[in-house]
Design goal:
- This protein is an alpha/beta fold.
- The protein contains 14 helices and 17 strands.
- Helix 12 packs parallel to helix 14.
């Protein structure tokens, strides 16, 4: 990969920041302190930073609760009865969906189970689920227990696609060939949009098309995609997707999860699902009658009353995404990650390899550095030096400069510390 106009110097980093139209958003976030200054925060792929406007947003809802009590459901600045709706349009813009195709509820793995109960309908002959080998453990557990729920053996019902011997990344053609090979028995493809360990971004459009051609449905876990890389879920005809909002979406620990259901399914109120009060048609909700009639959109999968205090931070963060725009964030992310890669290539004294794809179209903000030796110790020393990254066994330090709040000078400072102290 070429690196036009990059130099391993502080003036270069500052010039890049000066030319960055999104640089002002850095001041919208709280950074952890370190040694009288700010830590270098490259861990937004695990937990995003707190937007400064969150405190005021929470206070608005606390004041509504204080002054209105139950009246807050129908009055106040943001009536709680419709709280999930406040996040729909900005999330639809982020994931390339129609507004009726998205909602917020629960948490990621809960939503994955709920979606699979609707979209994994195995038969005696078509019952297999395909996913990438080494998916995040929670996804593995969800798929394993779902196939067991229907009486199938996970060793038979789950097809895991692994990289070729000696390789670390999945080849697109290997995924598509496997879908075609198992087409007659395949019920569902359930890939991560991006692998948490390697940072590889999968071709979701191609996987979806191949799954549909084989007679299967296509779902995705977008935990590392939402707010990181623009996607077009509606256009790609994805059947469903789930994500968390505490990573790149900066909504705080344990924040409410997100769901996409394609309109062809969302509008089908006959499609099976677990019912709950908040998913029931609003016109009849307060009649308090028997007979679940789901809303004819993604909210028809909601179960319980909106989690106001678990959603308010997401609502505040999404205001920033609407201002910045996913296309501009993606443009900066590509340049920021390329600068990080350029500087890492200068560190010849450290023994590591970048296992994330070199092609910017196949990755997001994360570079995974595989250390052949002493990865854990190197990670711990980085933390001591004020570099907040995370470690994943075996041997990988994940470095993720989120474009919303990270700067080119952050990347340069990271390089300088590694050059001088490691």
């Amino acid at each position: 990969m070429s690196y036009p106009d990059f130099q391993p110097t502080l003036p270069c980093a500052r010039a890049l920041d000066a030319a960055d139209p999104l640089h002002r958003f850095r001041s919208e976030f709280h950074f952890p302190p370190h040694a009288g200054g700010q830590a270098i925060y490259f861990c937004g792929n695990s937990l995003g930073l707190q937007p400064r406007r969150v405190a005021d947003a929470v206070q608005v809802e606390l004041k509504a609760w204080q002054d209105l009590a139950v009246g807050g459901y129908f009055g106040g600045t943001n009536p709680w009865l419709y709280y999930q709706d406040y996040c729909k349009q900005p999330l639809a813009d982020i994931v390339g969906a129609q507004v009726q195709e998205v909602t917020v509820m629960n948490a990621l793995t809960v939503n994955l189970h709920l979606m699979m109960l609707s979209f994994y309908r195995p038969t005696a002959t078509r019952y297999k689920i395909m996913m990438e080998a080494g998916a995040f453990p929670s996804d593995q557990y969800a798929v394993e227990t779902q196939v067991k729920h229907y009486g199938f053996d996970p060793a038979d019902a789950i097809i895991e696609i692994a990289p070729r011997p000696g390789e670390r990344l999945l080849r697109r053609e290997d995924i598509l060939d496997a879908i075609a090979l198992h087409g007659d028995s395949l019920a569902l493809t359930m890939f991560s949009g991006m692998n948490y360990y390697t940072g590889q971004l999968y071709d979701m459009a191609a996987i979806t098309a191949a799954a549909h051609q084989a007679g299967a449905l296509a779902g995705f876990d977008l935990a590392h995609v939402a707010g990181n890389v623009p996607v077009q879920l509606h256009e790609w005809d994805v059947d469903f997707a789930v994500w968390c909002s505490y990573k790149y979406l900066n909504a705080g620990p344990g924040a409410v999860g997100g769901v996409f259901v394609h309109e062809k399914h969302a509008s089908n109120v006959q499609l099976g699902r677990l019912g709950g009060w908040w998913g029931n048609e609003e016109k009849t909700r307060f009649r308090m009658e028997k007979g679940f009639v789901p809303k004819a959109d993604a909210s028809g999968w909601c179960l319980s009353t909106s989690q106001v205090f678990n959603t308010v931070c997401l609502k505040a963060s999404l205001e920033l995404f609407a201002e910045a725009g996913m296309d501009r964030l993606r443009q900066k992310s590509i340049q920021l990650t390329a600068y990080l890669e350029f500087l890492l290539r200068q560190l010849n004294h450290l023994s590591f390899e970048i296992i994330t794809p070199a092609d910017p179209a196949e990755r997001g903000a994360q570079l995974s550095l595989y250390f052949h030796e002493h990865g854990r110790q190197i990670h711990d020393k980085m933390i001591e030096c004020g570099i907040i990254v995370d470690y994943r066994e075996p041997g990988v330090i994940r470095v993720a400069p989120a474009p919303m709040y990270c700067s080119f000078e952050d990347v340069y400072r990271f390089y300088e510390i590694l050059k001088e102290h490691f």
